[in-house]
């Protein structure tokens, strides 16, 4: 049985935990809720304001060549809907790396992010 400290250490927010407890309701009977429920509630709390970052592992990456792209640094918001999170630098280039599983789903002339 995990502790409150343990789930908080793994990314649970206090507000997410509070909403999960309220969702169970007050009852004397035993209520069983799955872990997917508690993390889904936490995601609803975090999603609107969490800054977005991008990372890819060296193992399993595939180079993709983009015609017409030039190497440059762009300044974009850390969260597309929340300007308060600030800005970050994103590099574009004619050669980018993506995961092999994502590369298999690529189609010509389709916008991907």
Automatic annotation (TrEMBL):
One of its GO terms (biological process) is glutamyl-tRNA aminoacylation. The keyword Cytoplasm applies. GO terms for cellular component: cytosol; methionyl glutamyl tRNA synthetase complex. It comes from the Eukaryota. This is Uncharacterized protein. Keywords: Aminoacyl-tRNA synthetase, ATP-binding, Cytoplasm, Ligase, Nucleotide-binding, Protein biosynthesis. Residues 50-106 form the Glutamyl/glutaminyl-tRNA synthetase class Ib anti-codon binding domain.
């Amino acid at each position: 049985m995990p502790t409150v400290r343990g789930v908080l250490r793994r990314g649970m927010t206090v507000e997410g935990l509070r909403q999960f407890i309220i969702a169970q309701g007050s009852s004397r009977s035993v209520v069983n809720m799955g872990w997917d429920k508690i993390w889904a509630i936490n995601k609803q709390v975090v999603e609107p304001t969490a800054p977005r970052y991008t990372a890819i592992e060296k193992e399993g990456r595939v180079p993709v060549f983009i015609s017409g792209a030039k190497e440059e640094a762009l300044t974009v918001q850390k969260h597309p809907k929340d300007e308060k999170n600030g800005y970050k630098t994103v590099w574009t280039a004619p050669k980018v790396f993506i995961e092999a599983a994502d590369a298999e789903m690529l189609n010509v002339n389709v916008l991907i992010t």
